[in-house]
Amino acid sequence: MVKTITFNKLRRIKDSLPDGSMHRIADELELKVETVRNYFGGHNYNDGKYCGIHIEPGPDGGLVVLDDTTILDRAMDILAEKEGSTEPNA
Hints:
This protein is of the alpha+beta class. Helix content is 43%, strand content 13%.
């Protein structure tokens, strides 16, 4: 599923995650942790893989088109857990 989000919003989601979430998402999805970090705007392609994000210049850090929302969906689930919610966010 393709989703468009601002870069700054994507970074706010990443920054809101509890410590260890990058490793947790990587373990659960069987990815390298650097690949998960790249999804949230990192640039380590030596250890991690490209993860289907496309960044276009614009307001609020630019627009990010996500080819696959699996990592974002998992991050939102973790945030919902953190907030004590039982319903996952999408």
